[in-house]
Amino acid sequence: MSTLPADLRVLAIVQAGGQGSRMDVLTRERAKPALPFAASHALVDFPLSALAAAGISDVWVSVQFQSSSLDSYLAGGRPWDLDRTRGGFRRVTPEEGSGTAHEDGFSHGNADGLFRMREAIRLEDPDVLLVLSADHIFSLDLRAVMAEHLEREAECTLVTAQIGRQEARHKMVVAHDRRGRVTEVWNKPSRPRYGTVATEIFLYRPDVLLEELDRLRRELNRTGEDTHDTGLGDFGEHLVPALVRRGRVYAAPMTGYWKDVGRPQAYLQAHRDLLAGKVDVFDHPDRPVLGPAIPGVPGWVGEDGELVDAMIGSGSRVRGRVVRSVLGPDVEVQRGAVVEDSVLLSEVVVEAHATVRSAIVDRGVWIGRDAVVGAAPPGTRVTDAAIALIGQDSRVGRGTTVPPGARLEPGSTT
């Protein structure tokens, strides 16, 4: 384990984001970090587990949308040993009436969100501010990254990953020299020159961060009006480019699997990667992925059931065929039913002889006998537009066809 100063004060902020609109019907009634992954975890488990493994106990979780959907799951930070008398876990939500317009209310991007928390950060007075997103799958030795950050006397460290240039269009693209010093960043470029991107894990020197946030706010609001939107937006728009110009921003490469699962295609692909053995996040005994224990009996496969490259959660019962799919807790696949290349979250019933392909099915959904949901060719790489999304507590009638790319709102009946 990397050696850090014994008196190092670290504050971590997990940005759990807004509505997560790219996930469409799956985040209508839940915060995106509450989305399940791998049958027994939620997305928020990954940053919180990385922090717990690094011994970081002062953790704030910033939630703006459907915060109640996370509250019971987070349990005051108990599953990650963050429930402390002093410090520990803190949930941060938007407030009205606590300050000026650009301090109150909902933020407009992750840099804007930090600006609204700047006084609380200043009072906490950490030596290192660690900011993580809550919709990524990863496992990382944060102590090693912090040690490198301090050794370099960095004002900001970006954890980076290599991805395809097509996907890089949606990210902050990073260029750095041989020593890892970042020389330029591009925020969501239409034609990326590189596939090196920021993973939305950032380490900041707090005094420099707060200084730049205040300076940028003044620069972006030359009129001096007390407007609600600071204009700071996301990190890649103004903050990180400004820090790069100061010359002490460094890149730290992600050492294992990393994926932003904020879109349906990426979420489904991450589960496919898991089943293909490409996801190493559960392979580190020194960095276990923690979360609330899910009660229930073990999953069961009947005499007529068949699992091929599949994973099932506790309490699930399979009498049909499940291929390259992940079933959450208490899912029932009846005799003659087929589930392929799909993720079924929890308490889903797939009746006899129904077919589900290339779909993400939310909790509590009932799919009637002989129904067909989605129909992309088995095993193919599908786009967001081709994945069927079924909102929670929906009912797909017997013999009904739900085409590829369909979106059923929560509580729908077809």
Structural class: alpha/beta
- How many E-type strands? 31
Radius of gyration, taken over Cα atoms and rounded to an integer in Å: 22 Å
Number of helices: 9
Q: How are the strands ordered across the major sheet? A: 5-4-1-6-11-8-12
Average pLDDT figure: 92
Overall tally of structural domains? 2
Family: Belongs to the bacterial/plant glucose-1-phosphate adenylyltransferase family.
Organism: Serinicoccus hydrothermalis
Domain Glucose-1-phosphate adenylyltransferase/Bifunctional protein GlmU-like C-terminal hexapeptide: 302-376
Region (Disordered): 85-106
Characterization of this structure:
This protein is of the alpha/beta class. The protein has two domains: 10-275, Spore Coat Polysaccharide Biosynthesis Protein SpsA, Chain A (Alpha-Beta Complex), CATH 3.90.550.10; 300-408, UDP N-Acetylglucosamine Acyltransferase, domain 1. Helices cover 19% and strands 25% of the residues. The chain contains nine helices and 31 strands. The protein has helices spanning 45-53, 68-74, 110-116, 118-124, 142-151, 165-168, 206-220, 239-246, 264-275, and strands at residues 10-15, 36-37, 41-42, 59-62, 89-92, 128-133, 136-138, 156-162, 172-176, 182-187, 196-204, 249-253, 258-260, 300-301, 306-308, 311-312, 317-318, 321-323, 326-327, 332-333, 338-340, 343-344, 349-350, 355-357, 359-361, 366-367, 372-373, 388-390, 395-396, 401-402, 407-408. The strands form seven sheets. A seven-stranded mixed beta sheet has the order 5-4-1-6-11-8-12. A six-stranded parallel beta sheet has the order 14-17-20-23-26-29, with no helix packed on it. A six-stranded parallel beta sheet has the order 15-18-21-24-27-30, with no helix packed on it. A hairpin with a 5-residue loop joins strand 9 and strand 10 (182-187). The termini are far apart. The model is unreliable at 100-104 (pLDDT under 50). It holds the Pfam family NTP_transferase. Keywords: Glycogen biosynthesis, Nucleotidyltransferase, Transferase. Its EC number is 2.7.7.27.
